[in-house]
Structure formats: C-alpha cells, structure tokens
Write a structure and sequence with these properties.
Chorismate synthase, AroC fold, disordered C terminus, 5-stranded antiparallel β-sheet, Chorismate_synth_AroC_sf, 18 strands, 8 helices, 2 domains, alpha+beta
Amino acid sequence: MASSLSSKQFVRGPRSDGGAGFGFHVSDPRKLFPPTLHISFRRTAPPRKLQVQAVGSTFGNFFRVTTFGESHGGGVGCIIDGCPPRIPLTEADLQVDLDRRRPGQSRITTPRKETDTCRIYSGVTEGLTTGSPIMVKVPNTDQRGHDYKEMSIAYRPSHADATYDFKYGVRSVQGGGRSSARETIGRVAAGAVAKKIIKAFSGTEVLAYVSQVHNVVLSEGLVNHETLSLEEIESNIVRCPDPEYAEKMIAAIDAVRVRGDSIGGVVTCIARNVPRGLGSPVFDKLEAELARACMSLPATKGFEFGSGFAGTLLTGSEHNDEFYIDKNGRIRTRTNRSGGIQGGISNGEIINMRIAFKPTATIGKKQNTVTREKQEIKLLARGRHDPCVVPRAVPMVEAMVAMVLVDQLMSQYAQCELFPVNPSLQEPTESLVAQPK
C-alpha cells in the first residue's frame, strides 16, 4: 500500500520584512511556496518465526498436553501447559495411575518389565504447581529391539507399520514407535493432574472399568454407578467390579494367551458430579470432544454414550429423558439414556460412555502379509504384547476423559462465570459438589 499526503498551508503570520503574507524573508521565494510533502507507507510482511508444533501430539485448548517419546527410545512423557497454580502435586500423585497402566502387572498383561517411575522436571516447586509448563518423563528400561527384526522387513497385519510407511516414508520399527501404547504414559500422567483439578474444584470423579472381554459381557445393572468405587475396580486383575464376571473374563484371556493370540473388549467410563453446562455448540460439543479424546487411544474401534447404538431400537417417546424437580428443587432427568449429555452439553447427570478395543497382537502364529519391497510372505511376529488390552486401558480412558473435562471446565468458567451467574437457571461450577443428589 502506498499513499501521499500534501502538507497543509501554514497559518499566515507577519513577514520578516513587515509586509503581509508568510513569515519568511522575500529574498527566498522557495519559502513562499513550501514543496509538497510526500509520505510513503509500505506494507511489510511480519518477520518469519520458526515455529515448531507437535502435529498430532498435542491435545486441549486451555489445559494443553503434549506427549513425547517412543516405545524403544530413551523414554516417554508429557508437557502440561495451562495447569492452574498452587495445586498440590507430587510424583507420587502421578505414580498411582501409572502403576495401574504399567506392563507386567499380572499374567494377563504384556510381560515387559517396566517400573514406569516418573519424574517431574518443571512446573512444580515445594509441592505446588507454579502455573508454568509441567514436564514429566518416564525412562524406558526394558528394551528388546531384536524382537522386532522381522517387522523391519514386513508389516504386521492390523498394526500401524504399513500406514506409517505410507504417510512418512520411514518408521520406527522397534515397538512400533509412536503407535505403541507406551505413548499413553504421558496421557495417564497428565490425566492424574486433571483428576486432581476437577476433584478439588467441582467434586468431579472419573472412574472406568472393564465391562466386556470378548464374548463375556457384564450384565446391565450389576454395577451401581452412584456408589462405584476405585477399590471395587481394583479388586481383581481384569478391573471388572463384579467378582463373578471378573473370573470369567480372566479365564477368557488365559485361554487365548497360551495360544499366542489376543482378544478385545469394552471399557465403561463414568463421570460423576460433572458441572452443568460443559461443552459448547456446535463443533465443540462435549460428546464430540470426549469421543475424539477416547478414540485417539490405541486399538479403539467404537464409542457410544448412554443407550448408544441400542437407542436406535427405541422410539423418541421411549428414549427421551423426561425432566422433573427433585426434593431439593433441582431439575433432573428420570432416565439417563442420553448419557448425561443433552444437546452436546452436560446436564448434571452421570456421564456414561463405553469404548471398544480391538484384539491387538498375534504372537507365535504365521500370518499373510507383504514386505516393504512388495513381496507376499508369511510373518511370524515376536515381541511382548497384551493378550487383551482392556485391563490396562482403564486408566488410559480415565485420563482422556479427565483431560477433556478440565479443559471444558476452564472454558466454561472463563466464558460463563466471569460475571455473576443467573441463579434461577445456572449453578456455579465450584459449588456443585455441595449439591445433594
């Protein structure tokens, strides 16, 4: 853009020779007619800055989590940005959920031996968060890269080997690199922080458990979501709160484990005392954010809320959750087929969702595949893998749900509670824990 501005004529004043006109000496005619002043403006591009973004490895808007590391690299972890200051936090707080996720914890998980001991490198001082980025790292200590010699030549069916080559033209062979479930260590660590925030602020609790392993399906109604506790979930190695079904699930996993095969299952996750109003129309609906978060976990193949796909068998009048006023004068729903979310926004009921995980590994059996040189062969895969991923997926699901809720909580507080709420319709998010149900 360019423009020119002409200077305005000066205000007339007494001349130096006593005559009328401009106050300049008449011997200099140039001063009688000042030249036109030209000012040029040129639009310049802002200086280019080198920006490095973790494409596909960062989640969240206000509570932002970036995970890093690979299965057989030096270690894995996360960087948490946006964590509020003055939150009590220690490495022991994170270790509880990391221990629930770690390999080698029972015979029905991968035999890889890792302590998954975490260390906080920044963002915490004297046991309190500072508001600055929190870096957490867990070293890899039990690596056996030679187990993946065959995978450097050929692709494992239903794994990310081929697609990583298709996308990048190169891949990390050992352990699958970033596609390995070991990447979820960073998520679980960040999820532990998110759980502390939502529990302290609004009394929100996130709990997940195994509700199906292969064809062993936990009957509906056996688990009371109002009273379900972490102790019930952790009472057995498969993380099913019903002891009878837990034994059936363990037997099903044992049966395929000895054959070098694997099976899938379903994790049910609930969130209690979720503040009303979380989620935003139209693209940032809470349902959409939760689905995106959980479906980003390794081996996920299905997701549903409330009645889920079974709701398609009902009519609208049968499926709708009717409203009523409870004894405390609070608007509630008599049923929860919507899974605690209506119109894409939390409505104060228990959020109920289910995530399906596929079978992940076939060890000791030859399978048809192709090499990187496009030759058809039979592959005998090696390595250490879970015969069923769902028991270890429980804390992963909890982490992703907690991260979504704390991110949405911050958004809700910033937009809708910066000024006093409408008390006849709204509830302050931090007071919900005090509301009896």
